[in-house]
Amino acid sequence: MAPLLQKLSFLLRTSSSSSHLLRSLLLSTATASKKPQNPYAPESHFMVDYLVSSIGLSRDQAIKASKGLAHLRSPDRPDAVVGFLKRTGLSDAHIKSLISWHPKLLCANTEKTLERRAKELEEGGFSGPLLVQVVRSNPFAFTINGVLQRLQFWKEFVGGDNTVFSKVVRRNRMLINYDIERKVVPNITLLRNYGLSDKDITLVMMRVNGFILRSPISIKHLLKQTEDLGFSPESKMFVQALSVVAMIKSTTLQKKIELFKSFGWSKDEVHKAFRKCPNVLSLAEENVRLKMDFLLGKAGCLPVYIKERPMLLAYSLEKRLVPRHHVMSILKEKGIGKYFSFYSVVGLPEKNFVEKFIRRNEKGMPGLDKVYAAACAGVPGFPTTKDQNIPAVLASMDLMQENFWKDFLRNSGQAIWSQSQFLCF
Fold first, then answer.
1. Residues near 190 by Cβ (< 8 Å), separated by ≥ 6?
2. pLDDT reading at 143 higher than 60
3. Of 12, 19, 257, 370, which one has the fewest beta carbons inside 10 Å?
4. How far apart are CA 136 and CA 90, in angstroms?
5. Helices 115-123 and 129-137: crossing angle, nearest 10°?
6. Alpha-carbon distance 160 to 144, whole Å?
7. Burial class (CB in 10 A: 0-12, 13-18, 19+), 30
8. What are this entry's molecular-function GO terms (predicted)?
9. Per-residue pLDDT tens for 52-69?
10. Are 211 and 183 a contacting pair, CB within 8 Å?
11. pTM flag (> 0.85)
């Protein structure tokens, strides 16, 4: 900067015509060089370093969070708040999450606000792990008015079950921020009049974030959409279907219908499949395509077989469909399990499948349990729907008894991973 100032000074002395312009430039340059850093700028406030070192936020998160803490002049109050939260039972990870969401909690008066509210909640029946769950779900529980009455309402509404209550407040983090009479009661009345029990409403709330906090008009629309898909309010599947419909946009719902129609399904067949398994509505497009490719190709299922059993699409491709198909292909080559339908096999609970098809055959087929475990775990190199290179697998995974598999491969080639001719009935 000094050489630049010297040159400007020289020009001022030698050029009268440019005197005014250069003098202005010199003044502004000198002023800029002496301008001190703003000690109150968010990125320079001491709370930025505090949030990074004591709370665990990233620097970018800390700069953003510190904007509401600029009036603090020492870490005394934040230290007191953090100490209180730890005594309440919250871990460092919990505290980090709370402060990320509600940084101004660090400004609260521990004695007059936090401890007083905690005592009120504990005396009202929310203590220990339950208090921790409430605060984890919403840090405003310590600072907004009317919290105890709202918590008591919801605990009674779900039947007094602490586990269910915890799931509801965890799924609906803003639940305690809303007035019960003005925001919640109209929606509960609407749903009850439609035929839903309080247990039904609770189930939807556990699945869908903010469902009960929507406008009555929005909830009426969701109820109608669910009925239009062929679900009767008296049906046991209505609540499950309503939950799925409430999680996706109307435009997305229509796209899902078009997706299944692209596989040759009629609109009636799509609706019929949804009525059997509403959860297929919530599957991502790529997820559906991968499963359909596998079921129609590798597993050898006919289109009508899948239409009649849409639950197949709800199972995990990597954790259930592919691993069990591999195992049954191996058993089939030995003449075992050839009369089991694919649907009955993948529908078995894990414990039952392992006992019926792995344990019973491990003596005659050593290593089968490890093959299945490797497939379920997604071990690198294990055959997938796009990889049938068994010799490479044998070389990379010391999971099977070498002599057995050499003999097996010699007798059947690579047919053990070929399309399975499962009976579809």
1. 216, 219, 220
2. yes
3. 19
4. 8
5. 120
6. 23
7. middle
8. nucleic acid binding
9. 999 999 999 999 989 889
10. no
11. no
